UniProtKB/TrEMBL annotation:
Domain HTH cro/C1-type residue range list: 19-63
SMART domains listed in its UniProt record: HTH_LACI
Keyword Cell inner membrane among record annotations: no
InterPro entries assigned: Cro/C1-type_HTH, HTH_LacI, Lambda_DNA-bd_dom_sf, Peripla_BP/Lac1_sug-bd_dom, Peripla_BP_I
Protein name: LacI family transcriptional regulator
Organism placement in taxonomy: Bacteria, Pseudomonadati, Pseudomonadota, Alphaproteobacteria, Hyphomicrobiales
Species of origin: Aureimonas pseudogalii
Keyword Magnesium in annotation: no
SUPFAM superfamilies for this protein: lambda repressor-like DNA-binding domains, Periplasmic binding protein-like I
Source superkingdom: Bacteria
Molecular-function GO terms, alphabetical: DNA-binding transcription factor activity; transcription cis-regulatory region binding
PANTHER family: HTH-TYPE TRANSCRIPTIONAL REPRESSOR PURR-RELATED, LACI-RELATED TRANSCRIPTIONAL REPRESSOR
Boundaries of every HTH lacI-type domain copy: 21-76
Pfam families hit by this protein: LacI (PF00356), Peripla_BP_1 (PF00532)
Keyword annotations: DNA-binding, Repressor, Transcription, Transcription regulation
Length: 352
């Protein structure tokens, strides 16, 4: 027999208390029972006299009570309010995912509340607590980090969908790509182009997804006969991936022979690398080829020098909604792995 979900049980108790207090206020004013008030405000008046109905309705107006449809919906597991927590809305990738998700949720009859955690565990917890107090029916977390409240929600089996990064606490549905495969695709491109001096540009504090991309890159190089120990790994500092790329490239381009191929873990890292290369008079992609992971549509306009692994972020919304429906129904949600393809300024080239 399926065990009841602790998260939903907690919501039921909280809303029952809220509704009971409100109904009790009306019942006390009208001099009737709470059950009588409940029936009348819900339109069931046949079991009460006209005088009782009038007295209850008058008390409703006097105390300013309004039936809480949101509360009733949550108690019947029909709430349509979803909290979406995003690590950094300054990042165009995350803004695209948020926009896609909002549209898909709206089309499915949900309402989305959007929060920016700035990739901070403490702020993530603040928002999770606030959204839980609003009794949302589910949580969508883009690039979540480990945190105390998130761990608690996972333990309670709250409806959680993790996007781009898997759950740091091992519970919840996942929507994203195969990060190892993305890194492997970059390795294949460099080897196919006969690039010799390879490097990887990544943040000092890398996420599990970033580490998986680097691991996939190294493993595929080894399979193709390239010793991954010959690859330079340069980590950049900064609050944004633009800063990360620029900071790392400063050291890369000052260190002797120019690397002829750099794997940038995101488009924005590649933009930062390119900026530094221009300042140093290094031609991109002639002297140094850059391949990133993201594949923003803006690249065709502002970065014709960049090749990238294209991720269909605009399609994430539908996959997120499908996963959310599974977890809110307490069903097992399979990982939803979206396809990737290699893209350059002249258009996408499908990768098998």
């Amino acid at each position: 027999m399926k065990q009841p979900c602790p998260y939903q049980q907690a919501l039921d108790l909280e809303w029952t208390a809220i509704l009971d207090i409100s109904l009790a206020t009306v019942a006390e004013r009208a001099g009737v029972s709470v059950s009588t008030v409940s029936r009348i405000v819900n339109g069931e008046t046949r079991r009460a006299s006209p005088e009782t109905v009038a007295r209850v309705l008058r008390a409703v107006e006097e105390v300013g009570y309004r039936p809480n449809s949101v509360g009733r919906a949550l108690r019947t597991r029909q709430s349509q309010v979803v909290a979406m927590l995003v690590a950094n809305l300054d990042n165009p990738v995350m803004a695209t995912i948020a926009s896609s998700t909002e549209a898909a949720l709206r089309n499915a009859g949900y309402v989305m509340i959007l929060c920016d955690t700035h990739d901070r565990a403490d702020l993530q917890d603040e928002y999770l607590e606030a959204m839980r107090s609003q009794l949302v029916c589910g949580f969508v977390l883009v690039a979540a980090v480990p945190s105390r409240v998130l761990s608690k929600l996972c333990h309670e089996r709250a409806p959680l969908v993790f996007v781009t990064r898997r759950s740091p606490h091992g519970v919840g549905a996942f929507v994203g790509i195969d990060d190892r495969a993305a890194g492997a695709a970059v390795a294949e491109c460099f080897v196919s182009d006969k690039r010799q001096r390879l490097g990887v540009v990544l943040p000092v504090h890398s996420s599990p997804a970033a580490k998986a991309r680097v691991a996939g890159f190294a493993d595929r190089l080894a399979e193709l006969g390239v010793d991954p120990r010959t690859v330079r790994h340069e980590m950049g500092e900064g609050t944004s991936h633009l800063d990360v790329g620029y900071d790392a490239a400063h050291r890369i381009f000052e260190a002797g022979p120019v690397h002829d191929a750099l794997f940038c873990l995101s488009d924005q890292i590649a933009y930062g690398v390119h900026r530094r290369a221009r300042e140093r008079g290094i031609e991109i992609p002639e002297a140094c080829s850059l391949i990133s992971i993201d594949g923003s549509p803006l690249n065709a306009w502002i970065a014709p020098w960049l090749c990238s692994i294209q991720i269909p972020y605009a399609n994430y919304g539908e996959e997120i909604v499908s996963s959310l429906k599974c977890v809110t129904a307490e069903e097992t949600a399979e990982d939803r792995i979206l396809p990737i393809q290699m893209a350059s300024y002249y258009g996408p080239i499908a990768k098998d």
